[in-house]
Batch of 2 targets.
Target 1
Amino acid sequence: HSHSVMITRKNRLGVMHLLLLLGVVLACQGCPEKCTCSSQTVKCQNQDLNAIPHSLPTNTKALFVTGNKISRISAESFPTRLLLLTDLYLSGNKMESVEEMVFENLPNLVRLDLSNNKIRIFSAKAFPDDNKLQIFNLSGAFFNHSYMNTALSFLRVGNLLQLTSLDMSNNDLVVLPDGIFTGLSSLTNLSLQNSSIISIQNGTLKVPPLHDLDLRDNSLRELPNATLAEFSLKPDLQLHLAGNPWRCDCFIEDLVVWLKSSDQVADVHNLTCVEPEGLTRHPLLQVEKSQLDCNYAGDMKSVLETSYVFLGLVLALIGVIFLLVLYLNRKGIKRWMYNIRDACRDHMEGYHYRYEINSDARLANLSINSDV
Ligand SMILES: *[C@@H]1O[C@H](CO)[C@@H](O)[C@H](O)[C@H]1NC(C)=O
Ligand SMILES: *[C@@H]1O[C@H](CO)[C@@H](O)[C@H](O)[C@H]1NC(C)=O
Ligand SMILES: *[C@@H]1O[C@H](CO)[C@@H](O)[C@H](O)[C@H]1NC(C)=O
Ligand SMILES: *[C@@H]1O[C@H](CO)[C@@H](O)[C@H](O)[C@H]1NC(C)=O
Ligand SMILES: *[C@@H]1O[C@H](CO)[C@@H](O)[C@H](O)[C@H]1NC(C)=O
Ligand SMILES: *[C@@H]1O[C@H](CO)[C@@H](O)[C@H](O)[C@H]1NC(C)=O
Ligand SMILES: *[C@@H]1O[C@H](CO)[C@@H](O)[C@H](O)[C@H]1NC(C)=O
């Protein structure tokens, strides 16, 4: 009898140990250090972390590791498969490199935010081929202009087939690399706001489903005919173009004509000329064709004015030099004057003498006589 009691006691102890162990395991599977977890959202924000916390709850749907000091993410950043994770926020870190296979264990990732980082390297193999990424934020994500072209080559791989929304604002792009969006066959929303873009070349925005294109606050002075024609081929496309330094000369004529007839520019009333001076802050919609000229009449006038002033100055200088020469040569001139005077006097005296001779009757007779 006592023997059997001993056994049950032993069993109870074992069960208790088991429960304890389970508790410890659950705690490990629970919330990582420096994170807060609620329902299926894990937040590890502004904690000076330099890596993604490991042992995340396997049922995590949304993970926020923002405002930390993570400089690289690689396949080791997500060692366990997180099948339910759809939203990943990594903005405001000091991310420099996004390495290959990093999102391999997040097969259902839909939303990715890498904004405000310092990315120099972005592996072309970062995303698995069957990824489900739809919304991607790369606003202010890159280190500087020098790294844009290579860092963006992952977009050309052509495996972001479900991407609908891409935010590339606040990057120093300047020009759009050739065919950069061509592989994004589902892209509808594209923001290129404040990206120092100076021109849109023919074909760079050749994305069939594009629906919303934000080009505000760039450095566009005009849009060429070919680009306008491309926009017109997508009647569903809405554009935002305000905050660009439009130059209202003859080259913008096609754009003005197009703006007046198109309803594709959502902020068309907010487009204003920056140049020339006479049209500053003038709405593009109110500019008349006759005002758009490249003769630069105003400029010509000022050029003429300055050349007149210059001519005057040159003449004044020549005058001054002339006077100076006269002054420096004053002695010589005096001598010269005296010489002339003397010569005149001699001449005059000679004349006078001859006159006197001629006028003296006696001498006249004498001369007549002598002639004889
Ligand atoms: C992208 O991130 C920036 C900064 O974190 C934010 O201001 C912006 O609204 C985000 N873009 C989208 C489309 O959510
Ligand atoms: C980008 O940063 C690198 C390294 O700091 C520098 O050498 C390069 O000049 C920068 N490029 C631009 C366009 O600022
Ligand atoms: C525009 O983008 C630059 C980076 O290219 C950034 O430094 C600046 O803060 C952005 N401006 C605004 C108003 O967001
Ligand atoms: C996409 O653009 C439409 C307007 O065309 C806007 O209503 C929608 O919120 C945008 N979506 C995203 C994710 O930015
Ligand atoms: C631009 O296109 C319009 C209409 O398609 C045409 O009338 C105009 O002549 C073109 N301008 C140039 C410079 O090709
Ligand atoms: C623009 O590119 C398309 C092909 O991408 C070409 O057919 C068309 O002629 C080009 N237009 C101009 C004006 O270069
Ligand atoms: C035009 O600019 C005004 C003032 O800057 C702003 O309030 C308005 O929302 C803008 N309109 C559009 C369509 O962006």
Target 2
Amino acid sequence: MQPGLLLALLLPKAAGVPVTGSPECPCVDVESGGYGRGCAAHDINNSAYPQCMSDAPPGWCGDMWCYVNRSNCLVTNEVSISPTAPPAYWSYTTCGYRDLFSLNNITDSIRGQTLRVLFIGNTGGWKGNYCTDNGQICVNQRGYGPVQRILDSMTRSSGFNLHQLNEAPEAVREHMARVNPTGSQFDLCTWATGMGFVDICGCSMVMLPRRTDASPFLTLWTEPVVLVGPLRGNQGLGGDFGAMLGKAFRPLSPGLWGLAVVVALSMSFLITMFEKTEGGQFEDVEHGESFGSGLFMAFFSLVTFEVQFAPQTVGGRIVSLGLAFILILLVSGYTASLTSFLVVDNRLSSTVSDLNGAIRLGLKICAHRSDSVQLLLNGVKEENVVIQQSRSVVLPSVSEGACDLAVVRQEDLEASQAQNGGSFCQLTRIGDPVTTSFSAKKSGGRAALSARDPGWLPAWRFALSLTAAIRETVG
Ligand SMILES: *[C@@H]1O[C@H](CO)[C@@H](O)[C@H](O)[C@H]1NC(C)=O
Ligand SMILES: *[C@@H]1O[C@H](CO)[C@@H](O)[C@H](O)[C@H]1NC(C)=O
Ligand SMILES: *[C@@H]1O[C@H](CO)[C@@H](O)[C@H](O)[C@H]1NC(C)=O
């Protein structure tokens, strides 16, 4: 019997994935006494990993992997280096598993270590790292805010310590001066991390290509940008007086208002007729005057939604009851639809429902310079992108009419609406986030570029490099 066949019979078979691995990266035989040969959970009960023999083994212990030939492998694989044997390459991916072993190993490798952190100050939102005095920027020092809280919780859960650096090392600043003299503190910080002078860049930042390119080891979280535009047809209370008066009549159609006037007038006429008879309200009143009063009371009843007559005759009272009933119908209909009008007014969304709508209509969109490329990538014409130099002027530029819509960070939208006395509350978020982010990971000597669905990722952005830790990783 062929050894491969025997192996296939003995080893548990992962659903769909052959024991020989995926054709893109077939398993190979290595002289290792069966360990790592063919897709199997080789580390379960493996005494080389005491944690796999514990009562609560890490997830990777039961995951399948095999040794592979890197020259013949197109998927993620890692290498084990030993002083006594040639490098051995292995892959979880080819067996249909993500490599949680390396991840675990990385987390383990920083436990108890002291990592160098460079803090960059943030303004313009509440998710960053800022100093106490009037939101002033912290220059190269620990401030407070979400960046600090996330670092604190990470240091606790992963058991590492922080050593704060006070500035980027000279070599990084020289690199910056050479490559991008006008670059920002954020560029400097990510480069310092990518170059291995710093382990953690502590700040909230927008990930730009020149930053993601800094290192294949950067772990990134990014907050998507959202499209924002004015609510349609909502004048709020700021509309002109005429418009406000006009609104009062909108709940009922002009026809219905006309009908109400005609009915009220004719019923008032009837009441006046009855009340002109003996014992009635207008018995002793002159003809002209009584009809004048009748007319006045008819309109007065209409605007107050209440019968203003004081009828004395049976006929007058019966018609008054009828009038009162019609007024009740009118007032309930009016208030009910007035309410729905006000609610609908505020719920009406913008003139477009997503970015594609904006592109179709050729609307002008304001964006911070770092977000403008997102718009171009998403197909917005260059002449319709209005680039702003500061995040804080993007939303005002929509209010001031410089553009029809804007793209901003969700954080900026929320902060502006909360902090400016409601002055941006007429703006609303439109459709899905517009970000298209790309993440690149170097694997097996190849760079794999994959488009990632932005979705709703964690609200803060944070770059953490584990360069040193990964370099140590051997499997
Ligand atoms: C691991 O070892 C324990 C005790 O020796 C045994 O009960 C268990 O079945 C083993 N698990 C596997 C998957 O071999
Ligand atoms: C790995 O694959 C390449 C190309 O297929 C081959 O030339 C090489 O001999 C293989 N190495 C081993 C150790 O099998
Ligand atoms: C990572 O895995 C290798 C190979 O098993 C091991 O020698 C090394 O100690 C691990 N690192 C940590 C920090 O556990």
